[in-house]
Amino acid sequence: MRTEEAIEIVEAYQLWRRDKNVPSKYKQPDPTELGKAIDKLIDVAKDSENPMPTCIQCKSNKHMILEGWHYACEMCQLEYSGD
Ligand SMILES: [Zn+2]
């Protein structure tokens, strides 16, 4: 899920949740999609706090994990030193 899509879903949920009309004039977002959107935004927030390095092979940091003092790309099975 793209960040923009996750933001849209969470914003739509907030509109639905805060609406005083019964029933709400807004459509309730699908709870599964809301959960995925929250997971995405948690990932984005964590990434902005402590960004993972980018893997030289897959050009992404989505599969990077911290193993002790080293980073590793789980997808490419490559290890990187901590600097
Ligand atoms: Zn990789």
Overall average residue pLDDT: 91
**Shape assignment:** elongated
Order of helices and strands: HHEEE
Helix content: 40-55%
Helix-strand makeup class: alpha+beta
Unreliably modeled segments? none
Radius of gyration: 18 Å
> How far apart lie the N and C ends?
30 Å
Proportion of residues in β-strands: 5-15%
Tell me which ligands are bound.
zinc ion
Question: What does the oligomeric state look like here?
Answer: single chain
Helices, by number, come to 2
| Strand order in the sheet with the most strands | 1-2-3
Profile the largest sheet.
3 strands, antiparallel
How many beta strands in the DSSP annotation?
A: 3
Number of domains: 2
Task: Describe what this molecule looks like in 3D.
The protein contains two helices and three strands; from the N terminus they run H-H-E-E-E. The protein has helices spanning 3-18, 31-49; strands spanning 64-67, 70-73, 78-80. The site of zinc ion (ZN) has 8 residues, from loops.
